[in-house]
Structure formats: structure tokens, C-alpha cells
Amino acid sequence: MASPLKSLYLDCTKYLQSFKVFLECSTGYQCLKDFMDIRLPDVLARIVEGKSLLNVIGVGSGSGELDLKMLSVLHQNYPQIMVHNEVVEPNPQQLHDYKSFVSQTPGLGYITYNWNEMTAQEFQDQWMERQKAKKVDFIHMIQMLYCVKDAGATISFYHSLLDRNGKLLINQVTGDSGWGKLGKTYSKVLFNAEVNCVTSEDIKRLLDSKGLSYQSYEVPSETDITECFTKGNKRGELLLDFLTQVMNFRKSASPELQAEIMEFLRLECSKETEDKVLFNYNSEVIIVDNLN
Questions:
Q1: Single pTM value for the model
Q2: Could you count the other beta carbons within 10 Å of the beta carbon of residue 290?
């Protein structure tokens, strides 16, 4: 049965408000940046062999903070490499923020951009129409496979675009993370068709079934969700909307469902320390090879 609750994805403004609060309360972005500093140079080393220009696609790039972090790591380690960057992001405000971020960041002359305000599926359709034979060196999908109807088909298409020695980087929460547990237990209650509850374990099973080579790296992180447990706290309500992916969860969910979800978030998805409730936001980075 379809969920009667309204998906947060249906309101771009409310989604961004909730997402920004989530980022402020989470160590997730910083932990990913640390991973990029430590691991990404070795990943890129094989890609850049014999190259002067890298073709890059960011699928679901958001406001560009992590995109530019990856490209800055590339430039720091391989300053001779130029980059053509295809940015794929359906949210117009996020794309605007990305462009503003680029305009305010010095030293990005080594990058050219093509801005695509569209979904991953729309970009796939456009690519097949216009440049079917073109190959790409590096593609990244950070926490975006929730937003596609068929994660396996999406991965297969984008992997097929890789040039020899190209890499596909996927970041997704783990099955034992708070979101992994919440999705496994309550996906039919909370999540509408706009949200596909997929974890890093699901991705690895897909890759194994296709016989694809990959390496995976755990990225531990957490989110302080203490404010969610104070009724009437505006930031807490926005944060709760993002965790459940439900618009106005406190107002639209029944009292019984609210109580059940709040208990589950506290007892099954989080740990408590120093009067804080810390939601498990562990994820995995999966680097998929192209050995052809």
C-alpha cells in the first residue's frame, strides 16, 4: 500500500531547508572530505596515466561542495591535468548554489563546466541521443541512488561510459547505519515512490552479480539528532523531516507512528552520550573499476 505521508522530495524548498539542518548536525561531509584527502590520490593515480584532460561526471552533485573537494585533491596531486566537468543536478536551487560556489572559489581555471539541470535518467537519455560513443574517466555518485527507480540499471549505464582505467565512485549508507535500519524496517510506512531505500550492501550485491571489480572503504560518521526529541523545536522538526523523508512529519504522522519512530530512532539507530542522541550515519565509498 502506498504511504499516505507526503514525501519531502516533492517540495524542493522544504527539502533544502531540512538538508541544510542535517548537514549542520552531521559529521558526514567532513568524514568524506577526510577520506578524499587520504584515499582519493591513489584512486586517481591510475586514471590520470597518459592523460592531460579528464572527463568527469558528477551525478547528483548538489551544491558542489564535495565535487570541488574531489577536484581540488586531483589538482593538488596532478596539477598538469585539466578537467571537463559534467554536473548533473535536478534541483535548481542546488545548481544555482553550485555555480555561486564556483564563482567565489579562486584557482579553478583548470576546470570547464557543463551544467545539466536534470535527473540521472534524463541525463542518460540525453547522452544516448547526443554523444553515445564518448567515454568518461571519473564518475561519482554521492548519496544519490535513493533517488533513482532502478539502482542496478543506473550503475550499469554510468559504468558503461568509463574509459579504460576509468573509475566510478559510489557513496551510500551501510545496512547497519541508522538510515539502513530505518529503511529496512519502515520503508513501506515512510517512503513514497520517490525514495529507493538502498544501502552499500545492496550496491555490492549488484556489483557482484554483474562480475564487476571494486574496492570498498567504510566511512564512519554520526549526526546529532538531539533536537528532534524536543517538540516544537523548529530545527528538530526539519531534521526529523529529513531523517524520515516525510514533509511535516510531526504534523502529518499519527501520534502512534510518531511515538514508534521516535523510539526506534533513539534505541535502534543511535547512541546516547553526554545528553546527546547521535544517529549512526556510517557509509561506504565503493570504487568500481573498468578493466577493459
A1: 0.94
A2: 21
Q: Are 160 and 290 in contact (CB under 8 A)?
A: no
Mean pLDDT per block of 10 residues along the chain (292 residues) reads: 73 93 97 97 94 97 96 97 97 96 96 97 93 90 92 96 96 96 89 78 96 96 97 95 94 94 97 95 97 68
Task: Show the cell assigned to 11.
Answer: 517540495
**Cα–Cα distance, 202 to 200 (Å, whole number):** 5
Per the CB < 8 A criterion, the answer to whether 200 and 172 are in contact is yes
* Nearest CA-CA partner of 146 in 123, 112, 180, 189: 180
Cβ count within 10 A of residue 99: 15
Grid coordinates representing 260 are 514508534
Residues contacting 202, CB < 8 A, separation 6+: 151, 172, 175
Q: What is the 3-state secondary structure (H, E, C) of 166-213?
A: EEEEEEEECCCCHHHHHHHHHHHHHCCCCCCCCCHHHHHHHHHHCCCC
Helix residue ranges per DSSP H, the chain: 12-25, 28-47, 65-77, 92-103, 120-130, 151-160, 178-190, 200-209, 234-244, 249-252, 255-267
Sign of CA dihedral 198, 10, 96, 25: negative
Give the SS3 label for residue 154.
helix
Looking from the CA of 64 toward its CB, the CA atoms found within 13 Å total 25
User: What residues have CB less than 8 Å from 40, skipping those under 6 apart?
Assistant: 70, 73, 74
